[in-house]
Amino acid sequence: MMNGRGLITCRQRSGILSMMALLMLSMIAGCSQSNPNQGTIPEQSPQTQATVSTPVAQLGKTKVVTTFLPIYLFTKAVAGNVADVEILVPPGTEVHEYQATPENVKAIATANVLVKNGLGLEEFLENTVKNAENTKLAEIDASKDIKPLNEISPIVKTRKEEEDHAHAQGNPHVWLDPVLAKQQVINIRDGLIAADPANKATYEANAAAYIKELESLNNEFQQTLQKTPSCTFITFHDAFPYLAKRYNLKQVAVVQIPEDQLSPTDVQNAVNAVRKYKVKALFSEPGVDNKLLSSLSKDLKLTLHPLDSLETGETEPQHYFKAMKANLQILETSCK
Ligand SMILES: [Zn+2]
What we know:
- There is one protein chain.
- By secondary structure, the chain is α/β, with parallel strands linked by helices.
- The chain has a domain at 228-335: Rossmann fold, CATH 3.40.50.
- The chain is built from 13 helices and 9 strands.
- It has helices at residues 10-34, 46-50, 55-59, 69-79, 102-109, 125-132, 160-166, 178-195, 200-225, 241-246, 264-276, 291-300, 319-335; strands at 62-66, 83-87, 113-116, 138-141, 155-157, 232-235, 250-255, 279-284, 303-306.
- The strands form 2 sheets. A 5-stranded parallel beta sheet has the order 5-7-6-8-9, with helices on both faces. Strands 2-1-3-4 form a 4-stranded parallel beta sheet, with helices on one face.
- Helix 4 links the parallel strand 1 and strand 2.
- Helix 4 packs across helix 8 and helix 5 packs across helix 6.
- The radius of gyration is 21 Å and the shape is globular.
- The two termini are 30 Å apart.
- Residues 96, 173, 237, 239, 309, 311 line the site of zinc ion (ZN).
């Protein structure tokens, strides 16, 4: 109830899937008909092309499969037009408890590259990759060399054994810190270059442009949030510890793993946490209209705003900046 992310129906979902399939078909058709050389590097010599040995790569673009939205956005930004990028977890479905479909297995079976967030987020992936039996698949772990956080912010959880489980590989929500997002983009860029060296120059140029935007986003966050140091907020999704650490905020996460329902215990925990910490704001998720939460915020005289974890949303690479700037605005208002 708390969470809109898990509520999509099968009908909606298959609708989205077939829409995506149609879109992809039309993209493929559009590319092969109108402009087969779109996106290739001008200085690319026939010799470089000859070094690409697999039939798949010779006939078409590198096929890259990504797991969920932020990783799709970053990969799409780096790949531009020179590789085909797909997403396994359709926006609107919950990544934390995602169950793979036969289509997912097929997508991985025919892919050249798989890009994941890592840090234990994509629990469905190990078996799905196994079932796909694709021995030539190159895997990119976008969180390579990122040091995960464990207990950086107070986490109020209701079940001890699940807390231990959840922390096996640290918190996975690194993409919500623009600085770590930059590291993810670098990892994706390097992985794509290794898998498809013919398009190195394009991957480098695209990544550089996106990284520049991430750097200016980081500056914007820094300049805005330094005015409200140590602003403490409560979330019901333990998604913002990296962002909080980066910009000197304090997240108190009141969550009951698997974080998709708000129980009376959670509400009581929130009340206790507000008393214990000097809390400025309560944050829910976009698209979530929870009466329990809004009456709680009224009782506590705290603002209730949506803070976007970007686990779902639009599939344009620029969506990352749009959603993060909206988050910044909400943080600024709430922390005043
Ligand atoms: Zn999450």
